[in-house]
Specification:
alpha+beta, Immunoglobulin-like, five-stranded antiparallel sheet, 8 strands, 28% helix
């Protein structure tokens, strides 16, 4: 006796087999994206630390936006190499004390370019105190 699978069932099985690896891998890929955090490193300097959870070295950089305006300052060096599973830092010197925002990017070879924003980034004594006070009040 010969058994046959209906065409619709065969198509569904093939589609499920093709999609399953993407669906199962999606949470792993999303959690492994590079990230960055920024903090004050003195009265006129910010420090950005990049974290790379990918399997290859990433090239990362950042731009600090003064008080959320279009006026910007690049980090020095302009880009840093972040080893797989590691971290690297970048300094942004000679900036006006205040509360700023930061845009960052990480280019992972063979993968996409990851981007993000950080803020508020307080630089200088009173700015740090203001942001920490607001974060305590709001529970952030």
């Amino acid at each position: 006796m010969k058994t046959t699978m209906p065409r619709a069932a065969a198509r569904a099985a093939i589609a499920a087999a093709a999609i399953a690896p993407m669906v199962l891998a999606a949470p792993t890929l999303a959690s492994a994206a590079p990230s960055a955090d920024a903090r004050s490193a003195g009265e006129t300097t910010a420090e950005v630390t990049f974290h790379n959870d990918r399997g290859t070295t990433a090239t990362c950089g950042s731009i600090l936006h003064f008080f959320g305006s279009p006026l910007s300052w690049f980090g020095l060096p302009p880009a840093v190499a972040v080893p797989p599973g590691g971290s690297a830092s970048q300094q942004i010197p000679f900036i006006t004390p205040g509360i700023h925002t930061l845009s960052w990017w990480c280019d992972v070879p063979g993968d996409q370019v990851y981007t993000g924003n950080e803020g508020p980034v307080p630089v200088g004594g009173i700015s740090v105190a203001i942001v920490e006070g607001i974060n305590q009040l709001t529970g952030n």
